[in-house]
Amino acid sequence: MSTQTSPTRRSVRTASGTIGYVEQGSGPVALFVHGVLLNGHLWRHQLAGLSDVRRCIAVDLLAHGDTEILPEQDVSVTANANMLAQFLDALGIAQVDLVGNDSGGGIAQIFAALHPQRVRSLTLTDCDTHDNWPPEAFKPFLAMAADGGLRGTLEAMLADKGIFRSPEALGPAYEHPERLGDADIETYLRPFLRSPQRLRDLERFLAAFDNKHTRAIEGRLKAFTAPTLIVWGTDDVYFDAAWSRWLAETIPGTRKRVEYEGARIFFPEERWQDFNRELRTHWQAALREAA
User: Fold this and answer.
1) What confidence tier does 290 reach under pLDDT thresholds 50, 70, 90?
2) What pLDDT score does 4 carry?
């Protein structure tokens, strides 16, 4: 099997906008879905480490990264789940191994609930679940954005990357925030300031946070039988590990639940070796089940 040796950035037009994404590798498709304030760059270690067994695709959500959308369109988590279906249609992809983190995990649940036939396997990491969001620890950020402080905050974090890594900002999302490179922070935040509309899009994305979207699909999750892996960090200040147990008990397709002691929400960046091994094993088992 031929394998792409480096990631390729692309975009594709859909009814939800022109969707930016990065892909690497060949074979069955694995679709990675990031959360708020990030983009497909979150999954760089998965693309690099798993491209020998999958065509790995990391999408940029509505209002994030290189994705271009209309000024007033819906940017809720359900709208993002609908975008994923359009995105796969545009690329001619029928089925994926779906992986989600943070808001992207909530979006992945909604997509899996609405399109179960399109999910070969599901992997959920620390994420929006049922009524656990927006998390208390993130509410001050939401309030700041609602009060018009988002531009100033983003500009400050870009001017001084230490602010991004601080306990008052995104520091609590990492075990070792000091190890996150300046270039990574630039990749995450700079797109939000490319134009006034991009900033407004992010403001609307934040304002649309409402757990009615994930509560609405609980019944469908209880009927979801595709092989499901749940991996959670135990030191997450946003989403307690109890929610990994809730997911495991709710989704009948759950095959395994893993806890990473001391890990935090963005562990796919920090504990990528361990996580990639879990994904590789999970995907191989899912293919065997489907055979």
Assistant:
1) confident
2) 53
In this structure, are residues 237 and 139 in contact, taking their beta carbons and an 8 Å threshold? no
Q: Where are the domains of the chain?
A: 8-133+210-290
| Token representation of residue 35 | 């959360």
Residue that the structure tokens 């808001």 belong to = 103
Alpha carbon distance, N-terminus to C-terminus of the chain = 19
pTM equals 0.98
**Burial annotation 100-110 (CB, 10 A radius, 16+ → b, else e):** bbbbbbbbbbb
Q: What angle do CA 10, 14, 16 make, to 5 degrees?
A: 110
Task: Convert the pLDDT of each residue in 232-253 to its tens digit.
Answer: 999 999 999 999 999 999 999 9
CA dist 289 → 17, 246, 253 (Å): 35, 24, 12
pLDDT digits (tens, 9 = 90+) for 28-78: 999 999 999 999 999 999 999 999 999 999 999 999 999 999 999 999 999
SS3 state at 131: coil
* Distance (Å) of CA 58 to CA 21, 152, 289: 6, 28, 25
| Whole-number Å distance between alpha carbons of 165 and 24 | 29
Which CATH fold would you assign to the domain 8-133+210-290? Rossmann fold (3.40.50)
- One-character DSSP codes across 223-270: T--S-EEEEEETT-SSS-THHHHHHHHH-TTEEEEEEETT--TTHHHH
User: Residue 259 class from Cβ within 10 Å (0-12 exposed, 13-18 middle, 19+ buried)?
Assistant: middle
For residues 130 and 214, give the distance between their C-alpha atoms in angstroms, rounded to a whole number: 5
